[in-house]
Amino acid sequence: MKKRPFTLAATAFHTPERGILEVLEKHLFSIDAEGRIADILSPADDGYEQKKEAARAERTLVELAAGQFLLPGLIDLHIHAPQWPQMGKALDVPLEVWLQKYTFPLEAKYADLDFARTVYADLVDGLIANGTTTALYFATIHGPASLALAEICLAKGQRALIGKVVMDDPVQCPDFYRDADATTAIKETEQFIEAVRALAPGKRPLVQPVITPRFIPSCTDEALKGLSHLAARYDCHVQTHCSESDWAKTFVEDRFGQSDAASLDGFGLLTRRTILAHSNFIDEEDMNLIAARGAGIAHCPLSNAYFANAAFPLRAALDRHMHVGLGTDISGGYSPSLFDGCRHALSTSRMLQSGVHAHLPPQERGLPGAPINHCEAFWLATAGGAQALDLPTGSFRRGLEFDALLLDTRVAHSDIHIYDGYDTPEDVFQKIVLNATHGNIAKVWVSGREILKGIEPR
Amino acid sequence: MKKRPFTLAATAFHTPERGILEVLEKHLFSIDAEGRIADILSPADDGYEQKKEAARAERTLVELAAGQFLLPGLIDLHIHAPQWPQMGKALDVPLEVWLQKYTFPLEAKYADLDFARTVYADLVDGLIANGTTTALYFATIHGPASLALAEICLAKGQRALIGKVVMDDPVQCPDFYRDADATTAIKETEQFIEAVRALAPGKRPLVQPVITPRFIPSCTDEALKGLSHLAARYDCHVQTHCSESDWAKTFVEDRFGQSDAASLDGFGLLTRRTILAHSNFIDEEDMNLIAARGAGIAHCPLSNAYFANAAFPLRAALDRHMHVGLGTDISGGYSPSLFDGCRHALSTSRMLQSGVHAHLPPQERGLPGAPINHCEAFWLATAGGAQALDLPTGSFRRGLEFDALLLDTRVAHSDIHIYDGYDTPEDVFQKIVLNATHGNIAKVWVSGREILKGIEPR
Q1: How far is A163 from chain B (nearest CA, A)?
Q2: Choosing a second label site near B243 at 20 to 30 A (CA), which of A302, A451, B249, B431?
């Protein structure tokens, strides 16, 4: 789909390299008819004024006002789409109750396609309004409802990677909500892959299918093998949960005599296109294996506080240059905002460093090593997520997809208070990362298309 | 000041007892000319319809729409008013840099009364907009600027307890920012107390003075003694930091051969009207002492993640029925929202329970005992804070001050998604606690006065 080229005059913040903030003050961003960044000019570059004047004359100039900033779109590496109605609910009950009484019955309702369409439309609107330009979704076991999610993302313009969930083990999965058997699960996954690829063909599809075994405990060996064949045949992304909790870690070790990561690798499910949610209990050997395969990790600090029994060793993963991004993990996590994700990644890394138990002496309480900072957190939510998914987006560079958001610090409901002459641009960025909410997001673009409207070109 | 009585027709949520949610569906709340709750009627009570009709006829009925709810106002038990411009900034530097390069130079600027007035007006507006109806403020060492904060709170209608900070120890405090000496600090504190009481006289003053030694390490013995005499003579609230970090705990033990709490008690500074910020490193004996004195604790989970070296043992404190509330601790904490405070109290309690270090076996990693739930968190932010301050507010009961907020779940920027027929009122309350932001707060009342306007009476 051809779009109308346009030029943005904006001060942008981005973190193209891990932990490094670049402030692009009053730059011109030219977006081409394919929705890619054709050019970026700084005020010191030749032709800056001419280009700006020309765009203004053509009425294709979007000029940001004081207090407005351009940021890369946010990337959610782990979210359960069907759990959207449950967001912020039932987090006061034990995991077993959460799963059996709330989550599985809710996911089972997506057999009803009308219900699915209603919720998924609300979901995608809600995420876009929070600045999520790319989402890696777990859907449900239902092919038609999962395809409806793909259609909705496409229609609303959100970049999405979507998996029909596979869970076929009758011992671990409830009767009312599981695949009939491994053969059916594999066949329906293949149909889903083909249907999504038919929906969004071409070399740069906005929506892609993902092979999605829920996690090893919910799948038979036969299902895991069959999905691995599909992954190879279709060169597809793969997503699953990995070593989230003590229980999950121990279950896989008992079943296969090796770790979750090693077991997935044994099935051929650990590839450059694999995203492992959580991975809190991976050890050094697992880290080496995951890094060697080029697989990515979706760090979900908020849901981990509730259900994971421990924090993900984020600093260690970053220091190894592993592929890591952030997931909201709705509804194990209650917040749809990846700004919240950044903030929880930050506070969790602090608590991991210092420890939490005051009765222990400091040297036994904490884990040595620096916590992450806000630039690293924002990298995780943008360029890090894009790297993990191998997508050409996540920062502002010539040739990348223009996935971005306009953040307005001066809206009525803003908690970002900037004091001129006191705050540097670097301070402004930190204030945005730490206090931006839904209400600060005035506009969102994906692949150059404006999918949430705020201000008009001037 | 007499106000116009009015009647609210609303579904209200409150937690008058710790951990117990009461849903008052479609109740009528009559607010008298003193700003107190004169009466609460349920639809089953005699006279409900007549009262509603009469209020409508008098045009004093405020009727909430679908999706709007009434909640008690939020109480911030620990906030550094002068650090408002620094909110969300400089949290990537070590504590020593944060203090010496950022915080003390910023606080020193409040010698400039114009600067103070500008920032404090922005601060009080920002907190009211976040639903904070009562705040216990640390100001600075400057009497005039601290008094300006009192005037601004009074003018804007926020309930406030304000302390001119005392820090007179030349070894611990920077030359550019400390009291001249103990005598001056005590004299200026006394003048401040009298000035605030002259500003807000009467039995139910909206604004009150608070005796505020910054913390033991920054005060000489002479200052601590003098402040304790003032506390007794004026029957004043007291606030200070207590056992926040390893360093602070050890410093006091080295200086006095006993804990922070015991030392404060020795000086006569631990009373029913004392609020201790943080208190992460208090032991059983300290807890018993604090509970016996009836002093309160301001739990600040967010800033603790950054600067405290450990988490406050909240469950243990609640199980002893200690007086505990929540503080934002701006700008050690970056969020002005006590809803965020609730959320950080929740996730911290989870992480304290399960532990954070995945390499430890589960039995060594965590601390046994239940985490807190969202009803307890909301109690901390409302009735718990009121109890700690000994103020007649924090829930909806006849005779209490009407400090409340109108929470609108259906505003454009809401992350609270309610599904009719799927969410119970209890679910709605949990969704509010976990996802309410600034943008959801449509109206705020303190002592019956509407201090943030949204909808009009219909």
Answers
A1: 24
A2: A302
A430 and A281 together in one domain: no
| CATH number of the structural domain spanning residue B401 | 2.30.40.10
Query: To probe the interface with A, which of B106, B351, B433 has the most A CB atoms within 10 Å?
Result: B351
Structure tokens at A73: 């779109």
Q: From the candidates B79, B89, B253, B441, which should be mutated to test the interface with A, based on the most A CB atoms within 10 A?
A: B89
Residues 43-62 of B with CB under 8 A from A: none
Nearest CA in chain A to B421: A85
Closest chain B residue by Cα to residue A417: B85
To the question of pTM greater than 0.95 for the whole model, the response is yes
Regarding whether B106 and B44 lie in a shared domain, the answer is no
Whether the predicted pLDDT of A2 surpasses 90:
no
Give me the torsion for CA of B80, B85, B88, B94, rounded to 10°. -70
Whether B306 contacts chain A with CB within 8 A? yes
Contact residues, A window 230-269, toward B, CB-based 8 Å cutoff: 246
Find the CATH number of the domain harbouring B92: 3.20.20.140
A218: its two tokens: 């919910």
What is the domain range of residue B51? 6-72+395-452
| Of residues A2 and B350, more confidently modeled | B350
pLDDT of residue B1: 57
Q: Report if residue B458 sits inside a domain.
A: no
Q: Chain B residue closest to A333 (CA)?
A: B434
Contact (CB<8Å) B310/A358: yes
Domain boundary among B368, B389, B410: B389
State the count of interchain CB pairs (< 8 A) between A and B: 182
Report if residue B234 sits inside a domain.
yes
CB A147 within 8 A of CB A141: no
Dist CA A169 CA A223 (whole Å): 9
Do A61 and A188 fall within a single domain? no
Contacts of A344 in chain B (CB under 8 A): 347
**Closest residue, chain A, to B333 (C-alpha):** A434
Angle ∠(B333,B336,B337) on CA atoms, nearest 5: 110
CB contact under 8 A, A89 and B357: no
Q: Is the alpha carbon torsion for A270, A275, A279, A282 positive or negative? A: positive
Q: CA-CA distance, B184 to B168, in Å (whole number)?
A: 9
* Overall number of domains in chain A: 2
The pLDDT of residue B3 is 82
Same domain, yes or no: B233 and B262:
yes
| Among chain B residues, CA nearest to A439 | B413
CB contact under 8 A, A366 and B130: no
Share above pLDDT 70 across residues of chain A, in percent, rounded to a whole number? 98
Residue A45 and residue A107 in one domain: no
Dihedral sign (CA A304, A305, A309, A310): positive
Q: What is the pLDDT along chain B (458 residues), one digit of tens a residue?
A: 568 999 999 999 999 999 999 999 999 999 999 999 999 999 999 999 999 999 999 999 999 999 999 999 999 999 999 999 999 999 999 999 999 999 999 999 999 999 999 999 999 999 999 999 999 999 999 999 999 999 999 999 999 999 999 999 999 999 999 999 999 999 999 999 999 999 999 999 999 999 999 999 999 999 999 999 999 999 999 999 999 999 999 999 999 999 999 999 999 999 999 999 999 999 999 999 999 999 999 999 999 999 999 999 999 999 999 999 999 999 999 999 999 999 999 999 999 999 999 999 998 898 888 899 999 999 999 999 999 999 999 999 999 999 999 999 999 899 999 999 999 999 999 999 999 999 999 999 999 999 997 543 33
Q: Are B362 and B412 members of one domain?
A: no
Number of other residues whose CB lies within 10 A of the CB of residue A359: 12
Q: Are B452 and B55 in contact (CB under 8 A)?
A: no
* B 418-457 residues inside an 8 A Cβ radius of A: 419, 422-423, 427, 430-435, 437-439
Task: Indicate whether B20 and B166 sit together in one domain.
Answer: no
Name the minimum distance, in Å, from the CA of B64 to any CA of chain A: 21
Question: CA angle, A452 as apex, A424 and A299 as ends, to 5°?
Answer: 65
